[in-house]
Amino acid sequence: MTVRRRSKVRRVAAFAALLGTALSGCTVGPDFKRPEAPKTDAFLPDAPSEFVSAGISGGEAQSLVQGLDIPGQWWKVFQSPQLNELITGALRANPDVQAAVAGLKIAQENARAQRATLFPTVQGGLGASQNQTPNSLSPATASGATVYSLFTAGLTISYGLDLWGGNRRQIESFEALAEAQCFQLEGAYLSLASNVVAAAVQEAALRAQIEATQRIIAAQRETLDILQRQSGLGAIPGGDVATQQAALAQAEATLPPLQKLLAQQRNLLAALTGRFTDKNLIERFQLTDLKLPQELPLSLPSRMVEQRPDVRAAEANLHSSSALVGVSIANQLPQITLGAGINSQALTADTLFGPGLVGSLIGVNILQTIIDGGALAAKKRAAIAGLEMADAQYRSVVIGAFRNVADSLRALEYDAITLKAAVAAEQASATSLDIAQRRLALGDTTYVFVLLAQLTYQQSLLVRVQAQAARLTDTAALFQALGGGWWNRDKEVPEAERLRCRPPSAKPATGKPVTDKPVAQAR
After folding, report:
1. Which CB contacts under 8 angstroms, 24+ apart, belong to 368-375?
2. Predicted model pTM
């Protein structure tokens, strides 16, 4: 080996040693620590554990099971194959979810691009030119020719020493942003599934209200027929007939608005599932098709913040802001760049790498900002303020999550009581109406008494339908408030083939997931 080649080898070895030193540099700025879990074990001071039965199908008693895990496809607890298929299609076809998937891919690729700063940049170049030396100057070639070709080739290696960890903090920030985007995607999945469930329940409730209104109209027409016969016999004045005709018209006027709402609800379901509204949906939902699960999960607060996508996204944004503080500090310190390269120039391409034509270069550049008008200091203060803002936003999201769960628990509690009372009121008003109609047919009572009974029954029937639907939507809202079970997603399920986020670190109190079968069958 010649002395010149040995010298080049030593230079490359020294350059590699400097790279190793750079990789072991310090990292300025705060090291991120996950926020502490809420120091409480309850969402309410007097959280209920049982929800009363209304004594009808769809109004069964429910109980909370502390620490019960949530299945990945939590909507299966309603035991509706139609609903399952609808949500499966929505998760595949909804454009908002597809946009969130693309957003996650963008964030992940940006993080990968930033990780490339940990490696040297190697660039190669080739060049060819036709040159002519002016006659007033000496020829540039040994042959004395004033017109000549020049071929060049070069290879350069540059590397910015990450002595202060600025690049690593920037990578940390981008990876945290990718994690935040991942949880935003999970939030989109959860919101979409919850919206489909709510829309299906509302459709079922509207169908029930339409059927109830049609029964009321039929009953009022029957009453009108009785009054018209009695008026023809002179048993009652004509004013009673006119009053019943007005009551019938008012009942008929309530039907088109319900039909309009049902049509709009169908349009909503089509949009949620990524379909256009020019084709009718095959799925039709009735309240009797949806079953209430008898056991409901209730996670500990410390577990809940691990499960909710919005809380985890806020935590990831907090992590990113923490890393950016380190980036701003590193930018105030000297920036060191290593460079090395080889190059060759020749008059012909076949002699480009000939002996004596190859040169090399190894150098170090140190750059330190001395005066910048306070720009770097201002950026550091902005990064610290950004960290404070992200911390406040995280705490706000956690408080909102607590409220969301607490509201869901109260809704389950009071809507169960409301449904029980509504069922009792409906049964009582139906009995009262039946008695009133019988007495009217026998001429034993006045029409006013029957009219009041009709109005009471109509109102109680609609209230019962709405209360029954509320119990279903309350159940779905609780699953959504607790995070939706994305960490238990089944790998064999088609819609489960998604980009996954870091699962909760804590384990549920029981490994038993909530079942999608009735408790009587599960046992």
Report:
1. 368/333, 368/334, 368/335, 369/332
2. 0.84
SS (HEC) of 64-100 = EEECCECCCCHHHHHCCHHHHHHHHHHHHHCHHHHHH
If 0-12 CB within 10 Å is exposed, 13-18 middle and 19+ buried, where does residue 165 land? buried
Residue identified by tokens 């009363």 is 52
Distances (CA, A) of 328 to 107, 113, 376: 21, 20, 7
Provide the 3-class DSSP secondary structure of residue 336.
strand
Give the full edge-to-edge strand order of the sheet including 295-298. 50-51, 62-66, 295-298
Report whether 325 contacts 384 (CB < 8 A): yes
**376-412 burial by CB neighbour count: b if 16+ within 10 A, else e?**
eeebbeebbebbeebbeebeebbeebbebbbbbbebb
Query: What is the rounded distance in angstroms from the CA atom of residue 359 to the CA atom of residue 420?
Result: 91
Residue 521 token pair: 């069958």
**Dist. CA 222–CA 216, nearest whole Å:** 10
* Rounded-to-integer distance, Cα 441 and Cα 424, Å: 26
Give 369 or 223, the one with higher predicted confidence.
369
Architecture of the domain whose range is 24-510: Up-down Bundle (1.20)
pLDDT, one tens digit per residue, over 452-475 is 888 888 889 999 999 999 999 999
362 forms beta bridges with 340
Cα 457 from Cα 245, distance rounded (Å) = 18
Closest CA to 290 of 75, 462, 482, 85: 75
193-206 as b/e, with b when 16 or more CB fall inside 10 Å? bbbbbbbbbbbbbb
